[in-house]
Structure formats: structure tokens, C-alpha cells
Amino acid sequence: FLFVSAVEVKIEVVIPEKERSKEEMSPNGKASPLIYKVNGTARHYHLEEHPIASNPYHNPKDVVEASVCHVKDLENGQMREVDLGCGKALLIKESGEFHAVGHKCPHYGAPLVKGVLSKGRVRCPWHGACFNISTGDIEDFPGLDSLPRFQVKIEKEKVYIRASKQALQTQRRTKMMAKCISLSNYNLSSTNVLIIGAGAAGLVCAETLRQEGFSDRIVMCTMDRHLPYDRPKLSKSMDSHPEQIALRPKEFFRTYDIEVLTEMHVAAVDIKNKTAVFKDGFKMEYNKLLIATGNTPKALSCKGKEVENVFNIRTPEDANRVVKLATSKNVVIVGASFLGMEVAAYLAERAHSVSLVELEEVPFKKFFGERVGRAVMKMFESNRVKFYMQTEVSELREQEGKLKEVVLKSGKVLRADVCVVGVGAVPATGFLKQSGINIDSKGFIAVNKMMQTNIPGVFAAGDAVTFPLALRNNKKVNVPHWQMAHMHGRIAALNMLAHGMEISTVPYLWTAMFGKSIRYAGHGEGFDDVVIQGDLDELKFVAFYTKSDEVVAVASMNYDPIVSKVAEVLSAGRTIRKRDVE
Known about the structure:
Rieske Iron-sulfur Protein; six-stranded antiparallel β-sheet; five-stranded parallel β-sheet; about 20% helix; flavoprotein; FAD/NAD-linked_Rdtase_dimer_sf; apoptosis; oxidoreductase; electron transport
């Protein structure tokens, strides 16, 4: 047992291997073949008839009812996975009341019974998404869908659940959404809401607007060729095709009138005239604007940087190409970042050799601390990854235009058929330089707790912003992670609709390497000590990051659901002291 500020946190350990491998694989939702081209121009929309979704719950044959337990079988604060014959549900008892919802997290299918129940919501043990137990609604991210909710009734001391078979099988529910009222009346070069960027922040913003009943025009534009996709997968499962990692199928965007302009590059924003100017000269007026452009990877600045087969991983095509070129060949990865390490892990069993070059002495030192970094490094070394630390690349050498060798400042020459660069990124905000929107010295867009910039009606979200983090006394921080981008998009949408909603989420992230995950919650920047429990050599540990006397973040491996438990404590606004975890 571990006591965390008067909260008893019992640590249960280890996802069975079977579930763990599923976690790294399953994509978010069903996908369909997907190319949604605008032929390089924004002038041609195809407005199609929208299929009316039929309601599966009206069919009595679709409904199943079963007795699942005795009322005394569950104590308050307990959860149980129950079988209704044609599927399972999660039965929860809290404050004397029973609730039943889907048993799998819609994000990657984690068993929610292993999650954390606290004050009317359940938090996923893997990636921290939170669901309301009364409604099933998603309240914190990652993922887009909510849980189905099932009827519970008590008769003669027995608990019965009544559920739709379809909901039991899909284990997900897309919230009701509005549609656009008469798109055909629109001037093509003006929109009510313009979203620049089609990552998690942009998509969640668009979906939230529709969920809240917004029925005016929404246009998203992206430089990408694809509709929004699960970007973390690019380095975690590199041979995924775009349609396998699509966040929503093409039909979804048609059904809810969310227009997506692909391969469209915004060159400038004219805030006085509320207009976005595209690279091809096309202009689009907006009423409300969300800037969610993410970041741009840094390139190498050494001699030979333009040779062929040197990649930043930006797109599914990049990732696929790297896998193809690396198979049975020599790979050099520059930068022991999350991206660099995940790519190294993915390629380790496919490539002939994988070498990793890094300026620090230990991977992840600034993020996870030296001891955790060393344990991770050991795991990589035992999987044939070779490290070249405290050095950098001085030259890339070619043969017939293609990469042949990577020369290090230490003088070492590494054979290389392909090189992946993961040396950090800069915010993709260059196009805003003359706009009047506040941008700091590093290029980040400054927003308040409502994701508003200094310009009325202009919001920003995701990797390109700094925002006040409640958890760290409203210090302005940049949190370039997937869960946070989702939440930014939601908060921006609610405030476009004048809800006055402030952000207060706890950052939550994960990395996956060799079928193992490190989970992390909080914001550890500037930590001055790490308290470790468990066994680093066995890769079964929890690390608490402290600043003076306070726990500011936690990381774990094979120690679920401890990170979700700590996230819930922090989310409730409680302080965890160093002495509570020592």
C-alpha cells in the first residue's frame, strides 16, 4: 500500500501480455479508405445528400436484459465487469447507486474495470481518458467517443441490466451532433468557424461545436493529404496505412458537415478583415478562428543534410517509407526524443542495425530523470540498439545521392542506409508573424485559460501554444502531447460559444517501446528529485517527480493504474507531498 495525502492508493500491477499488445495496436475507431482531395484549391465543394442514421435502439430484437448480480455483491466504490450473454458491461456502485456503461475505453480498448473510480467518473488505466458514470460521456481525453450507457433496475434484491446488443458489441457511442443548416446558401469564400490544422485539437473543436448544437458552417484546412489521423501511431506502429489510423471515416465528415480542405497552406491571417490568405491566393473570411497548426520538426544543420533517405516523420507516407528502407538495412536515429526512441524500438527487430545518436548522456534525462532514463537505455541495449551518447552528427555522406554514412563529431563513422531525425520541433506559427496575434520569443502562441489569444474571436490550441497550467500555479507552459491537444480543442469550442469554460486538466501521456508502456501524468518541468518505488531493473516501477516538497508528476511501467490514480488526486486539486510517497 502507498498512502497519497490521505488517499489510499492500492497499486495493482501488470496488464496481461495479451491485453498489452492490443493496447499498442488497436486503432481509434473504424476507418474507411480515405482521400478527401480539394485538388489544390478551396473553390470546389461536393455537397452530398446526408444519410439519415437509423436508431438501433428502436428495434426490440436488439435489446437484451439480464440479471448480473445481487445488490450486496458490490460495495460502494466498486466496479465489476459483467457478462450479458452477447457482450459485457461495466457495473459500478457509487453512493448507493448502480450505473452501467461500456466496459472498454473507446480509445484503444483498455479494460475500464482496471481503471480508477472517483467522484462520478472512471479514468482509463492506460492513457487517462475519463468518462462520466451516469451518462457515459467523455470528460477527459484521449479518444473521441463516449461510452454507451445501459439501464439498471433492481428487482427483489437483484441487479438487472438492459442494453442494446449493438452497443454491447461496439462499446462506443458518438455523442449526438447538429448538422449545418442549408449549406447551399453559403458564399464559398466565407465560413463561420475556420480551423487551421486538422490534428486532435482541430477535430475535437469541430466535433464539440456540433455536439453543442452549433449549426453554422465549419471549415478545417490542413497541409496534410489526409483527413485527421492518430498521429502518435506514426512512430509507435510505423507501417500503419492512413485509412487504418483515421480518427473518423470520410462519411463522418459528410454526415456532420465538417468540411476539410486538404493540402491547403495558410500563408497569412488578416485579423482586421477576419480573413485567412492561402498560399495559392485564395482567401476565406471567418467569424471565429482556431489556430491549431502544431509544430514543425527541426532539421539537421550539418554538411550533407540534403542527401536522400534522411527523414523527419511527419506523415504516414514518411513512416511507411522508413520501414521499407530500413528492413534488413542500417538505420541511424538522431535524437533520443520520444519520436527517436519509439522509432528505434519499432525498427530494432526489422533492421540489420539501429544506432541512436544523442547529445545528452542518457535518453529522456530531462523528462524522466537519469535513473529511469538508464533503465530504459538498458532495455534498448538488450534489444540490439546501439547508443552513441554525448555527441552529434557532423556530416552525412552519400553515394550516388543516397545516404551511405553518418559521421559523428566524436570521429566515429556509422554505416547508414536510412536516417531518422528526432531532434525536437518548433511551433508552426511563422505565418502569424505580422498578424498582431501575440507570439512569444520561441514562436508559441500565448493563450489564456479559455484558449483565447489577445485578439477577440481568435483561439489557439495544441502543440503551438503556451497556456496557464492550474496544476503548476497557472505557470505558462507548453504541453505538446496528444491528450492535451484534445482538451484544448474542446475548451476552445466551448468558449467560441461563450460558455466561459477554463482549462483545468492534468497532462497525461504515454510512450510505447518493445511492447511496454511508460505512462506519465502531471508536469515535471524543473523537478529537483525523483522518488522511485519498485524495481527499475525489472522495469516494474513508479517514479514520483518532486519540486521542493511537492509531487509535480508521476511515471510508471508495469504498475497500473497508479498513474491514473495520481492523475485523479491531482485533478481534484489536492497536493501530494514528498513525504506521502517516500
